[in-house]
C-alpha cells in the first residue's frame, strides 16, 4: 500500500512539474481583468431583499465606530498583451482605476435613532472623495541568477479628482415649535481634461491635451530564494512625475431656513399642522439663499497615485501545488502634498493547485484602506484560463465579515 501511495505521489509531483512548463507558461497571451467592490459599515445587503425592509437606527447608531458611516467602492478594468520567452516576460497593459468613499458623522444616526432635545443644536458633517485614472504600463519580469526582478513603468492620466469638503448641517428644535436648519456644502472637481475643450466641444485637441497632463510612476519587485521553496519578496510603487489637473471647478452653496411646524394663535377652527417659513421683522427684503454657486479656477494642481511599500515571504512547500504568502507594508495617498494620508497594509493568502489545471485560493488583506477576504477558483487548459473570485469587504475589520460589502474579480486569458 505504501508503494502505491508513493508511486501516485511521485506521479502527481512529476505531472505538476510538466504541467507547470507546458500548461502554466503561455508564450503569448491576451488577458482581460475586471475587479469591482462596494460596501459600507452600517447596512447589510440582506436588509434590502426582505419584503419589508427594517432599518434599526438605534442599533446602527450604537454599532457605528466613532468615525461614523463610511461607504467605499472601487473598480478596475484592465486589458493586457504579454510575451513570455525563456526567463523574460514582457507586455503592454491599459486600464482604468476608480476608487472613492462617502461618509457621514455618527451624530447623524444619533438623530435618526435617538432624536434630539429642544434648543439643543445637532451638527452633522459629511466627507467624500473620488479618484479616476487611466493608465498605460509596460511590465517586464526577468531573472538575474536565482533572483526574480520585475519592473512596471506606468503613464497615468488623472481623469477626475473630487472632494466633498466643508459640508455639514445644523438642526435645532426650538421651544416655540419651529425648526432652524443651517446647511452648507462645498464640492471640488479637478480633471486633466480642459474645461474649455469640453464646453466648446472642440474634441480634436482633447487627445493631445489629456496626454500633456499625464504623470509617470514606477513599480519594482524582487523575489529572492532562501531555502526549501521559501522566498523573500519586496515591492515598491513610487510616483516620479505627478499628473496635472488644469480644470478646477468648485460647486458650493448654503441654506439658512427656519420653519414653524405648529401654528399658534390661529383663528382656524382646526388644529391642523401647518408648515410656514418665518418672515424676518424687517422692511428690507430677505436675501435669497445661495443654493448653488459655480467657481472656475485656471490654476494647475498636481496629483500622484499612492506610494506603497510591501515586504513579505512566499513559500512553495510542494513545488507549484501549494503556495503560501504574506506581506506587510504601508501606503501614502496623495504623497508629496498637504493632503498626504498614511495607512498600513497587509496581505495573507494560500493557493492549492492541481496540475495547474484546477486551483483554489484563499486570502485576507487590508489594501487601499479596505479590508477584503476572498475565495477564488482557477481553471486552466493553456489555450484558455478563467480565474474567478468573490470577496467580503468593509472599511473596518469587524464589519468586513458581516455581509455589508462585496467584491468580485474575473480574469480571462487566451494564448498559446
Describe the protein's architecture and organization.
A hairpin with a 3-residue loop joins strand 17 and strand 18. By secondary structure, this protein is mainly β. The protein is globular, with a radius of gyration of 28 Å. The strands form two sheets. It has a 19-stranded antiparallel β-sheet that branches. It has a two-stranded antiparallel sheet with strand order 10-14. The chain has helices at residues 2-22, 57-63, 106-113, 195-200, 206-211; strands at 28-40, 69-85, 88-104, 122-137, 140-144, 147-173, 178-191, 215-227, 230-241, 243-245, 247-260, 276-277, 293-297, 301-303, 307-315, 322-333, 341-354, 358-367, 370-380, 384-394, 405-415. Helices cover 12% and strands 57% of the residues. The protein starts with a helix and ends with a strand. Helix 2 packs antiparallel against helix 3. The chain is built from five helices and 21 strands.
Shape, per Cα inertia axes = globular
How is the main sheet built?
19 strands, antiparallel
Distance between the termini: 40 Å
Mean pLDDT: 82
Amount of helix: 10-25%
**Elements, N to C (H/E):** HEHEEHEEEEHHEEEEEEEEEEEEEE
Beta-strand proportion: over 45%
Question: How many helices in DSSP terms?
Answer: 5
Low-pLDDT windows of residues: 196-206, 264-286
Structural class computed from helices and strand pairing: mainly beta
Number of E-type strands = 21
Query: What is the radius of gyration?
Result: 28 Å
Amino acid at each position: 500500500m505504501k508503494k502505491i501511495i508513493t508511486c501516485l505521489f511521485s506521479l502527481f509531483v512529476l505531472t505538476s512539474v510538466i504541467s507547470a512548463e507546458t500548461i502554466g507558461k503561455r508564450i503569448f497571451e491576451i488577458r482581460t481583468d475586471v475587479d469591482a467592490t462596494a460596501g459600507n459599515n452600517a447596512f447589510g445587503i440582506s436588509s434590502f431583499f426582505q419584503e419589508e425592509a427594517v432599518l434599526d437606527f438605534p442599533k446602527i447608531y450604537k454599532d457605528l465606530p466613532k468615525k461614523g458611516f463610511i461607504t467605499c467602492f472601487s473598480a478596475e478594468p484592465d486589458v493586457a498583451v504579454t510575451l513570455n520567452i525563456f526567463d523574460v516576460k514582457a507586455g503592454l497593459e491599459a486600464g482604468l482605476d476608480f476608487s472613492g468613499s462617502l461618509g457621514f458623522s455618527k451624530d447623524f444616526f444619533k438623530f435618526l435613532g435617538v432624536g434630539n432635545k429642544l434648543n439643543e443644536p445637532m451638527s452633522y458633517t459629511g466627507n467624500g472623495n473620488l479618484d479616476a485614472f487611466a493608465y498605460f504600463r509596460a511590465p517586464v519580469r526577468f531573472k538575474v541568477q536565482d533572483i526574480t526582478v520585475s519592473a512596471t513603468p506606468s503613464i497615468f492620466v488623472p481623469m477626475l479628482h473630487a472632494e466633498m469638503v466643508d459640508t455639514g448641517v445644523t438642526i435645532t428644535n426650538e421651544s416655540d415649535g419651529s425648526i432652524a436648519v443651517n446647511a452648507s456644502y462645498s464640492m471640488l472637481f479637478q480633471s486633466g481634461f480642459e474645461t474649455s475643450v469640453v464646453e466648446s466641444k472642440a474634441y480634436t485637441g482633447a487627445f493631445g491635451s489629456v496626454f500633456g497632463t499625464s504623470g509617470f510612476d514606477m513599480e519594482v519587485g524582487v523575489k529572492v530564494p532562501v531555502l526549501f521553496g521559501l522566498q523573500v519578496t519586496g515591492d515598491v510603487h513610487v510616483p516620479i512625475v505627478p499628473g496635472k489637473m488644469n480644470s478646477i471647478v468648485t460647486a458650493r452653496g448654503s441654506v439658512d431656513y427656519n420653519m414653524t411646524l405648529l401654528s399658534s394663535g390661529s383663528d382656524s377652527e382646526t388644529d391642523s399642522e401647518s408648515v410656514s417659513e418665518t418672515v424676518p421683522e424687517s422692511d428690507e427684503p430677505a436675501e435669497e439663499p445661495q443654493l448653488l454657486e459655480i467657481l472656475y479656477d485656471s490654476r494647475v494642481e498636481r496629483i500622484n497615485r499612492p506610494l506603497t511599500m510591501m515586504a513579505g515571504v512566499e513559500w512553495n512547500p510542494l513545488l507549484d501545488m501549494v503556495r503560501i504568502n504574506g506581506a506587510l507594508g504601508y501606503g501614502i495617498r496623495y504623497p508629496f502634498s498637504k493632503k498626504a494620508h498614511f495607512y498600513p497594509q497587509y496581505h495573507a493568502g494560500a493557493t492549492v493547485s492541481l496540475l495547474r489545471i484546477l486551483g483554489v485560493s484563499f486570502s485576507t488583506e487590508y489594501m487601499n484602506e479596505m479590508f477584503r477576504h476572498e475565495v477564488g477558483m482557477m481553471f486552466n487548459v493553456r489555450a484558455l484560463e478563467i480565474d474567478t473570485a468573490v470577496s467580503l469587504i468593509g472599511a473596518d475589520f469587524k464589519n468586513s465579515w458581516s455581509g455589508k460589502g462585496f467584491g468580485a474579480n474575473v480574469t480571462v486569458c487566451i494564448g498559446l
